Every structure is written in C-alpha cells, then in structure tokens.
Amino acid sequence: MFRQALTWVAIACTTTYTHANEFQKVTTIFKIHCIQCHGKNGKTKGDVDLLQIKNEENLQDQPELLTQLSEVLKFNEMPPEGEPQLDSASKDLLLNNIKLLLNESKKHPSPGADQTSLRRLNRFQYNNAVVDLFDLRCVVFSLPEQMMREHRNYFQPETGQMPEKVTVGSRPLGKSQMIEKRLAGVVPFPQDLRAEHGFDNRIDHLSLSPLLLESFLGLAQSIVESEDFNPDNVGIWDTFFATPKDQTDLSETIRTRLQPFLKRAFRKPPTTHTIDRYADYVETQLNQDVPFTEAMKAVASSVLSSPKFLYLFNHTPSDGSSETDSTDFNLASRLSFFLWGSLPDQRLLDLANEGRLSHPETLEAEFQRMLRDQRLKRFCDSFPSQWLQLERIISSAPNPDKFPGFYYLKYRDSMHMMLEPLLVFETILIENRPITQLIDSDFTYRSALLQEAYGSLVIGELPDRVPTEVTILNFHRLPVTDRRNGGVITTAAVMAMTSGPDRTKPITRGAWLTSVLFNKPPEPPPADVPPLSEQPAAGEENLTLRERLAQHRERSDCKGCHEKIDPLGFALENYDVVGNWRTHYENGREVDMSGKLFRKHTFTNAIEFKDALLAEKDLFTRGLAGHLLSFALSRALTPADEEALDQIVAATKEDDYRIQTLLKSIIFSQPFLQELKTRSNS
Q: CA neighbours within 13 Å on the CB side: how many for 619?
C-alpha cells in the first residue's frame, strides 16, 4: 500500500491542469462566497484580492496563495461565520482544483530546494559527530538543550518495548545532571537557538560569523589537547593516533590511516589530492621533530575545522573534484543527521559507495536498522522537545503562595513535569504506536513527586517518594483510565509553560495547540494591543477569564485570530497553572471550557475536546508531518512541499497512523530524496 501511495503521487504530479470549465466553476464559487471580503469594492482582507484572478495561470503562478486557500478551506476558516457557507461538493471541487494548480506550479523552480544546499552543524550535531568520529567513551561537552539524561540505559529500541520503570534526570533544571564524563577543558560554542515555529537545525539560522569560526578553531584544538583525550577515552586511538611499531614506510601508513578517517569525517570518500594534503601536513610536522601522536592530533584538529566537516552539503559542485557520485553519500548524511543527529556509520557509507543506498529496498532496510539502533535516542533528545517547545517551562514561575506544590525544597516540580511528555513520545516511537496517542494515550509515565503534584488527576499507585528523586528521577509506567490524562497536550508541563504566575493564559495555550498540533502558528498580535493583566482590574473581580478576554479583544483586527485560537485555549481551562483539575475560579464562578473545533465539532469537556481532535486526525497527521519534514530538511516548508505532505498523510493513514510509517514516508518523500538527486546531478 505504501508503494501504491508513492505511485499515486507520481501520477498526480504529472497531471496537467487544462480544464477551463473547472476553472470557471472555481471563479463562480469565488464570486458567490469570497469576493465580498476579497476584492469587491476594494476590500482585500488578508491582502487577498480574488478579482485579480483572470485565468488559471494567475492562480498557478501564486503557490503561496493556493496554499493559503487550501488551508482556510481544510480548517473551515472561510467563508467566515455569518456568510453563506460552502456545500461539501463545492468545497471538494475547490480543494481538488487547488491541488492540481499546485502540481503545475511545482514544475517551476522551487525556492525550497535552493535553501538546503549548505548548512552548518549545530552544537548538538557537532558534539555527536565528534563523539562518533573518535569513538569517544565520553561526551565532548554537556548539552543543557538535551532535556533528559538517561540513567541505567533504559532506551533499548531494538526490543520494541519501553520498560515499566525508567530512571532519568532533567538536564536544564538539575545541576547534578550536567556532571558527566566529558573532555576536561573543552568549552562549547554558544547554543543554537530554535527558529520561531521551527528547529535549531534551520539553515537560515546556522550562519558562521568570523567570531564563531574562531570559536570552532579553538574548540577543535581544545578537544585533541584535553587531558582526557587519551587511549582510555578515544576508541580509535590505536588505529589512528598511536605511534606505529613498523615505521619502514611511514608515509604509506599515514595515508592508510587518514583515508577512512577523512571518509568518516567528510561523509564521503576523500580525493587523492585531499589525502595527500593532510598527509603532507603530518609529514611536515614529523620532519620538525613533532611526536607522531601529536602530529596526528594536529591533523585531526584541522579536520574538525574544515568546512567539509562543519557543513552539510546536499550536493557536490560539478568542479571535477569528486571521485564518486555524491547522491548516495548525501542521502547517507541526510538520513543519519535526521534520525541519529550525527555522522553516517560505516554501513551507510559502504552502501553509498556501492551506489545501493538510494535503491528503495535498501533504503527501507536501512531505515528499519536505524530505528533499532540506540543512536535513535539522539532524535528523541532533539525533535520532541523542540516540537513541543518545552524549553518554555524553564522560565515558568508559578506564584509560590498560590501554587506551593510546584516547589519541592529548592527544586521545582518542572524537573519532573518536562520528562513526562518526552517519555510518552519515546514510548510511542519505540513501540510504533499510532501518533493519535500523542493526543490521547492509554498510558503515561510519572514519578512519585509528579503524581502528588497532579492532585485529583492521580492515576494508579506508585511507591512512596524517596529523597534521591530530586536529582535522579524514577518514572513508572501507568495505565490511563481517566482520559483527562494521557497524551502530551494535557500534561502538567504544557499547562505550566502556557500560564503566567497567577493565572492560565488561554490565548497562549490556543496558540501553542494550533502551532504544535496543526503546524499553523497564528500571526503575532498588533503591537499596540496591551496584554491582559494577571490580576482583574477594578470591577472585573466577579468575571470569568473568558468574560475578561471578551472585553479585551473587542478590536475588529483581533477578532479573526481569536475566533481560531480561543476555542483551543479555553478547551484546557479546567487545568490550572500547574496542571491540577479545577471546576471553579477563585471568585467562585464556574469554569466554562466549552467550544467548537473548526466550527463543526462541539465539545463541553476535556474528553469531548480530545474526541474532536481525533475526529480531525488527518489534519493533526499533516501538522506533525510538516514539523518532521521541516526538521528532516532543515528548512521551512514551501508550497512545493504540499503534494509530499499529501503523500505522507495518505501512507500514514493506511497503516493506522503509526509513527514509524510516518517517519518512513518522510524519508521516501520527494523533497527528502529529490533535492539530493537534482542538486547533485546539476
């Protein structure tokens, strides 16, 4: 079925949009339902003027507009309430014709592909790449952005099962979690920030300034000069750094050692010229009486400073310098940095060298192998925390007088909170569960302290809390029978990081939900709109939060966005600032969380809200697929990626929405494969 989905997309991409009568139907729908706000009498809401569309070429040449039209139709945002609504046949006609027009627009050069030709390793990837290159038995430097530290090696993807108990730690908030075996004297370069509504591997955010380049040079030297960079910690010491016993042909020995090292570091076979250049450097050092090991350390340092190590190339320039076709090697790098956050291993490089990695059967087999490798933990250490925006919990500071349970001695409960959604994600991935369990899972993981903090939302039974749980945390797997729990969206972590010190923030929660679940980040509010105060103003003491916000957003330019965001945000209003369940506000008024999702799914409680989300699981699948594809490609998506998302959603749906099928569909998607092939053959 997966192959059939690929075939369907290939056929769709070759279909030519030539039906003038169909275009006439589209313009008729525009005139009846749309131009009142988008063209008539000069009105152009959202800067969209549909009266300017004179023929199908006008639409075909505007892929951004086509994508925008498709989205507002899928999410039932247009026509607005109070206007004549589209019947299902008209809606389907519009969506199908928009899809055909987008297919035609894809035949023109895509700006997306050009964005991904070159990018720098981020700090997380650099650390992993150095560890793998030297086969280090320690880390290069500690990474606070890696939110969960694994204790006792619970992560065993080859088993296909997460254990009933895991022992973990919280890196950003637990100082003791940063104490680990690492190279002494090595200071990392600054953390790469996550792009707004994106990830920290985005090409447009990974520049290399002169100051940062100097940091890289110093970093490379400090790594090989560390007192811990020795035979005990460096796995390749004997085969690369150790002085050879037989020195009869030292020049050949140097080249023999450099060839596999450079191939691994640069992710493809080095040219003879490249090997000679580095070998000559070593020999020059030796001629100046530098010890062999020190000379090899110096050349290793220079390799770490090379653009071929620091940058990921999605294509090789056609300058005649490459000895092999680069497509398979670039695919090996894209695969490994997507799933392992690091260099390709020897098997990937060997398959690329044979030109077999891009064969569908081989690629699928390697994907399955990579999912069973413990290096998959690096994907779990990078993608889910950024997708869920969990770094926001670090700055959460609930009022200790109102929420004393958030604080335990000098430690904050957020140490425990942030780990629950991460463990849920890892379980769904390792056990290949449906992605719908990210919304409504039948299990979760909790520590004893976190269980206490949930108050009335306690589930199951856990051992008594022990003192060590403020540093090393024992999380137990618990079945979820009360659906107010389960998934990631109703965890205490999400509630705390989308609240202020004294009150919940439905607008923030709604914006988080639409961004994370559906990959539709709202526009920022107008600069001249002040935020709602934490405390009620005079005369507002007896109002509910919904009533206070209704007064706050009376401006017409705020109404459109709030109609989309507020139903999502208020759907979580029964969860207070720290995730406890409540039915009334402090002033005694009852919490009203009722609403309507996408103007068609009515809900009156949290469970009905989850049911509404699950009724739109295809839109959630598309949103998550968009996040994953953007992460895999290291760029923002463009309208040219829309058909690929259709393919990914169709394939995932066929396999009961299982997460590993979603990942496989990303790897087999046209943007993931075609950009590499097109660019390297250009």
A: 22
CA end-to-end distance (rounded Å), the chain: 32
Compute the distance between CA of residue 123 and CA of residue 129 in angstroms, rounded to an integer: 10
184 close to 228: Cβ distance less than 8 angstroms: yes
Distance CA 342, CA 265 (A): 10
Q: Is the pLDDT of residue 298 over 60?
A: yes
Instruction: Give 174-182's long-range contacts (Cβ < 8 A, gap of 24+).
Output: 174/411, 174/415, 174/471, 176/471, 177/149, 177/471, 178/142, 178/144, 180/138, 180/139, 180/142, 180/149, 181/137, 181/138, 181/139, 182/138, 182/139, 182/140, 182/141, 182/142, 182/228
177-181, 340-344, 665-669: which range is least confident on average? 177-181
Using the Cα atoms of residue 499, residue 504, residue 507 and residue 510 in order, give the sign of their dihedral. positive
How far is residue 427's CA from residue 154's CA, in Å, rounded to a whole number? 11
More confident residue, 115 or 549: 549
Chain length of the chain: 682
* Strand-strand pairing, 473-479 and 165-170: antiparallel
String of b and e for 402-416 (b: at least 16 CB within 10 Å)?
ebeebebeebbbbbb
DSSP line for 627-640: HHHHHHHTS---GG
What is the rounded distance in angstroms from the CA atom of residue 442 to the CA atom of residue 479?
6
Residue whose structure tokens are 């942030």: 418
How far is the C-alpha of 265 from the C-alpha of 581, rounded, in Å?
52
Question: Who's near 535: CB < 8 A, 6+ residues apart?
Answer: 502
CA–CA separation, 571 and 426 (whole Å): 26
Strand 443-446 relative to strand 473-479: parallel, antiparallel, unpaired? antiparallel
